[in-house]
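PROTEIN DATA CARD
Card holder: Class II fructose-bisphosphate aldolase
Chain length: 286
Origin: Mycetocola manganoxydans
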Amino acid sequence: MPVVSLKEIVDRAFAEKYGVPAINIVNDLTLEAVLAGAVEANSPLIVQTSVKTVKAIGVDVLFTMWESMTRGIEVPVTLHLDHCPDRQVISECLARGWNSVLFDASTMPVEENQRQTVEVVAEARSYGAHVEGEIEAIQGVEDGIGVETATRRESIETAVDFIRTTGVDVFAPSIGNAHGVYSSTPDLDFQRVTDLVEATSTPIALHGGSGMTDDQFADLISRGCAKVNISTALKIEFMKSSLEFLKGAEEKDKWDPPSLFADVRQHIVDLTTGLTHTFGSSGKAW
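Structure generated from the sequence above:
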């Protein structure tokens, strides 16, 4: 199965009412592990890269890793640039081969956000790529992008107009979700998802998924959240499993990096397969 477009993945999920994990990777190990987890679960997968990761690894090296690891892959996968307010980075990633981008102009006035998103959509289309849009900054700073406090939600009419005018392929609304770790189970506006879907028939991206309950995921996915973002959970799993292994290595005075990599990899594979079962994408590859 070759790499496919974001739209192909989310449109199928939207129609069949399941969610596809959109997982932010941080290096080569996590990239390979989430892909392996998707293959094991026979699930489509959206691999996401933050601007911070793109800049840390480099556009060329990161995309070469992606090409190498997805060559001949057996499930549909796509590469997405997450939360990017920098038009130059968007252009660089689209030109290099990213399949989709989230242009994050949520801190701008809606009119300016809309104007620039129209331009980004046109640019993406020239590469056969797709665009996710948002008009409300989702609370929480992650990888240096975001806001500390909740922002005012725009009206449904404003959001619908933005979706229709820009032609974005996926829309990320604010529904009480937040990036990072929740201090308690979030109080979510489920009806807002339903209202947006009924008005536009556009797949919804659910941000701030790390820490939501299985019931919340199921409810939101049934309403049209076809793309479910996971970033914090992977970071926690990656670092905690590394820490636990290194504590054991210190106790045994046995230092074997390949064993560390294999152990952490398995944790990330298990995280990925678990998400596919929770979101209903397991067995949905084509």
